Description:
Number of strands: 5
Shape: globular
Largest sheet: 5 strands, parallel
Oligomer: single chain
Number of domains: 1
Amino acid sequence: MTRRNVLFVLGSSRLDGNTESLARAAAEQLPSDAEQTWISLAEHRLPDFADQRHDIDHVRPTEGSAALLLDATLAATDIVIASPLYWYSVSAQTKRYLDHWSGWLRTPGLGFETTLAGRTLWGVTVLADEQPSVADPLVGTLRNSAAYLGMRFGGVLLGNGSKPGDVLNDTDALARAKTFFAQDAPLARFPYETR
């Protein structure tokens, strides 16, 4: 069995926020031999993504945040997007990271799509709303991204909180965190696909 290499992409503009706290609680339950890589998008800023898919040949980034994130993404067996719910979807930093996937898909010789196919995408988010359904756009973004690349999708671990530390009072979320990464992650499908 392949050893798990879990990449945690932290999409908050705040360090040690609620979403990161919930992700760390879930990560504590990973097997002891699982490698964990944590990258904060606030500390490793990506440049704005310019859609040039029809204009230029894409070149693999060799330095800076883009190279770091690309290499970590390609090496991961599991990618965990830990983004707070901002305006009902992922944060701007997280969206920029996912936008860069479009360029990496078109980089000759990289094999981004074939490398990620069959790997697992997970999500962790904390929202300041009692209705979990307000996070549906965030869940859809991650599920559809996984489906497009032929990845597995483990779902999204939802917590509740607003001020830093609030999620640690969400006993239901902390209980779900204990088994989150142990659950089955089926092949992702678009909502219109039949099972």
